Amino acid sequence: MGGTTLTMASSCVLNNIGDWQLDQKMTRTKDRPLACGRLKSRGVLLYALILGLAGEQVLFYKVNALVGWLGLFGMFVYVVFLGAW
Q: In the 8-state DSSP scheme, what is residue 63?
């Protein structure tokens, strides 16, 4: 559960990095930390990578390789395909 949570959190943060310019244009999202400049994308990317690595480490080494690969696949789908919507 912890590995999945960390992996999902990483995906959400990566998605926020990809959407920061769009967030600047929308009234509902313009005050998000990346959109208004309170956080820098480099630090947020580092945070996402730490979350993702920690989550994947748990999935690969505490569960099994199949679950680890499925976690990576889920991250890819969420960030690349669903992030494009």
A: I
Q: Which domain holds residue 69?
A: 2-82
Closest CA to 16 of 1, 39, 53: 39
Segment 10-48, tens digit of pLDDT: 999 999 898 888 899 999 999 999 999 999 999 999 999
pTM of the model: 0.86
Looking at the 3D structure of the chain, how many domains does it have? Answer: 1
* Nearest alpha-carbon partner for 16 in 43, 2, 27: 43
The Cα 79–Cα 75 span in angstroms is 6
Compute how many other C-beta atoms are within 10 angstroms of the C-beta atom of residue 21: 9
Q: Is 48 helix (H, G, I), strand (E, B) or coil?
A: helix
